[in-house]
């Protein structure tokens, strides 16, 4: 890794978002009545926004400082 | 069809459980038995001809449509389960080609999984061949609209002319200066948008030569970088795929203050060509260091963006 790049947590946020986006919204889709349940995308965005805001809040509560 | 192959038993139906499918892989690939999405229930393999599904039993009390809807409203439950799903897929990815399923694709019985595999076998096999020996990489374009605008103001002759006029404008006629300023702002914004669109096109074109396939997705919501402070994902980052996090750090730093994601590409790259591809990303960035659009690569990912999506018919 180049020395001038901070391997810090900024990428983790991107990666977490990317993980959520891929697992929730992409991948093989089997539609129809063969499946019992398949995650519902609209609901998921509600959860995603909540997740992000809760991550922000958790950071503020825990550290109380700027990075 | 043999229910048992090389000592790996096909699971029997069980009451009160559904079968959560993580992905589809070729029959011949040896995959480790990892933990499933529910504690105490490891993954099992469901064979059908030349392909197999990696699945695990899950309680219907948690994963049936109705309880699932409620559970997904809990962001921590959701993040944890998404990461567990991803971990199983990553374990498969380490062994050979895999087609990852969308989150919470659950069947009533192993037989139902087998029927699904049988129905879509040709498409699965075709898709497995497409992703064999390849990796999915994400490329995000971060635009700094302030820089983009400044670069436009510097370069555009019409805007420079207006700026000079504005500087010369008579102080006793503030009205005309006001309208000139407004026209200039409107034009600068229009030019900024044009330049941004142009850079986005150029970026995709520059990468096309080093990828097998490329798809453009809408930028993710919530990806504006407002204060530049990296956000801790403590408690969540632990379950992130190690490969992805590492490669993200390897490629470039993430978003900076005032930046916005304006480009979200998924690239299917030959494993042998990954270094060339990443060098291309870096070259693009170096050549446009002062332009206000940076590319950031992340990967390798399972080929979520290059997996088939089947229609709504069941038969």
Helices and strands, with pairings:
The complex is a heterodimer of chains A (67) and B (315).
Chain A (H helix, E strand, L loop, with lengths): L9 H16 L9 E3 L3 H23 L4
Chain B lengths: L3 E2 L2 E2 L7 E10 L17 E5 L2 E9 H4 L1 H7 L3 H19 L5 E2 L5 E2 L2 H22 L2 E11 H11 L1 H12 L5 H35 L4 E5 L24 H10 L7 E12 L3 H14 L5 E9 L14
Helix pairs in contact in B: 5-7, 6-7
- Output the radius of gyration of chain B: 25 Å
C-alpha end-to-end distance of chain B: 21 Å
Strand content of chain B: 15-25%
Poorly predicted runs of chain B are 1-7, 222-253
List the helices and strands of chain B in order.
EEEEEHHHEEHEHHHEHEHE
Q: What is the arithmetic mean of pLDDT of chain B?
A: 84
Strand tally of chain A: 1
Task: Please outline the major beta sheet of chain B.
Answer: 5 strands, antiparallel
Uncertain residue segments of chain A: 1-10, 40-47, 53-67
Mean pLDDT of chain A: 57
Oligomer: heterodimer
Radius of gyration of chain A: 17 Å
Extended strand count of chain B: 11
Q: If you had to describe this structure to a student in words, what would you say it looks like?
A:
- Chain A has a domain of 32 residues.
- Chain A is built from two helices and one strand.
- Chain A is elongated, with a radius of gyration of 17 Å.
- The two termini of chain A are 21 Å apart.
- The N terminus and C terminus of chain A are likely disordered.
- By secondary structure, chain B is α+β, with helices and mostly antiparallel strands.
- Chain B folds into two domains: 129 residues, no CATH class; 122 residues, Alpha-Beta Plaits (2-Layer Sandwich), CATH 3.30.70.
- Helices cover 43% and strands 22% of the residues of chain B.
- In chain B, strands 3, 4, 5, 6 and 7 form a five-stranded antiparallel beta sheet that branches. In chain B, strands 9-10-8-11 form a four-stranded antiparallel beta sheet.
- In chain B, helix 5 crosses helix 7 and helix 6 packs antiparallel against helix 7.
- Chain B is elongated and about 90 Å long.
- The N terminus of chain B is likely disordered.
- Classes of the chains: A mainly alpha (67), B alpha+beta (315).
- Chains A and B meet through helix 1, strand 1 and helix 2 of A and strand 3, helix 2, helix 3, strand 6 and strand 7 of B.
